[in-house]
Specification:
It is a single chain. By secondary structure, the protein is α+β, with helices and mostly antiparallel strands. The chain has two domains: 40-167, Lipocalin, CATH 2.40.128; 179-315, no CATH class. Helix content is 26%, strand content 35%. The chain contains six helices and 20 strands. Strands 4-3-2-1-11-8-7-6-5 form a nine-stranded antiparallel sheet. The longest helix has 29 residues, at 2-30.
Length: 317
């Protein structure tokens, strides 16, 4: 009887332990995931609007004055599709969402590391990947953090609009003013000139000269729209020149519209000084007098910026 009583006691304890475990397991299964555990599947069908694109410094601009603008609209569609807004198609375009490793995903020909997923927001780090090697966080190409909010969160919680959230901050403006002031003190210095969000505009004063700003985007060489922003390029043709010529060089265009020849292409080192003087002379005589020069600006602030010019001279017929 003693043995049976002991066995019965052990049985009761075992049953109680099992019930407790089952109860704990059921409770765990019934609980909602914490936000730190959410994945794209948990936000299936929710549309997110990019409201901020920041560098690690908290600004929309990196140290060289290059700006990242928030423009994306994305929506996960189970099981493996990411919809992204296409300006060309004026609608959402479907891309395969490829899981790489860790928190790294690829879609729309870009790599991202997931930093945060909630029902109201996403934070994705844009990554530069070369030959399946991810550039480190200290590489400016991977130093971009994109924040997305839902329309409901923007309107019902923040009581604002997507457009307002996408606007540059006061800190951005102060930063650009500081960079601009530095270029104004040394306007011809290409090392401190920076790419203008609104590039230089050349307006012909007559029919003797034509100007075309053209794109050098090329998918085969991975030249994106950003390349046109950083390296704006122009073709300028003088119809009644003193001689026929075709020159390619860069100009630093200052905030006051003055132009300084900087880089000269296709010239031997020993001929560089003489060729720069020649190009500067053509710039001062022809471009200065035949064109109205509007300097490049960023956030409405004029500053020195460097451009590339393909200058063609045609003899008068």
């Amino acid at each position: 009887m003693k043995f049976n009583h002991l066995s019965f006691s052990v049985l009761i304890i075992s049953l109680l332990f099992c019930c407790a475990c089952n109860s704990k397991s059921e409770k765990s299964n019934g609980e909602e995931k914490s936000e730190s555990d959410l994945t794209f599947r948990d936000v299936n069908g929710i549309r997110f609007y990019e409201v901020k694109r920041r560098f690690k410094n908290g600004l929309s601009f990196n140290k060289d004055g290059f700006q990242q603008e928030p423009t994306w609209i994305i929506q996960f569609k189970s099981p493996d599709t990411m919809l992204a807004y296409s300006p060309e198609k004026q609608g959402m375009e479907a891309f395969f969402l490829q899981f790489d490793h860790g928190q790294v995903y690829n879609f729309a020909r870009e790599y991202f590391r997931v930093k945060t997923i909630t029902k109201d927001s996403l934070i994705l780090q844009r990554l530069q990947v070369d030959g399946r090697v991810i550039a480190g966080d200290d590489d400016v190409r991977s130093d971009v953090y994109c924040t997305y909010y839902t329309q409901n969160y923007i309107e019902k919680v923040l009581h604002t609009t997507v457009g307002e959230l996408q606007r540059p901050t006061k800190a951005d403006t102060l930063f650009i003013k500081d960079l601009s002031n530095k270029t104004n003190k040394d306007p011809s210095n290409a090392k401190i000139a920076f790419a203008a969000r609104e590039p230089v505009v050349f307006t012909p004063k007559g029919d003797f000269i034509t100007v075309e700003k053209f794109s050098t985007q090329d998918a085969t060489t991975h030249r994106t729209q950003a390349y046109d922003y950083i390296y704006p390029e122009y073709r300028i043709e003088i119809k009644k020149s003193y001689k026929a010529f075709a020159y390619r060089f860069s100009l630093v265009v200052a905030a006051n519209g003055k132009m300084y020849v900087n880089r000269v292409d296709g010239v031997m080192e020993e001929d560089m000084a003489a060729r720069k003087r020649l190009y500067q002379g053509i710039t001062d005589v022809y471009l200065k007098n035949l064109l109205k020069i509007t300097p490049g600006t960023t956030l409405g602030i004029p500053h020195s910026s460097e451009i590339t010019v393909n200058l063609v001279g045609r003899l008068a017929k």
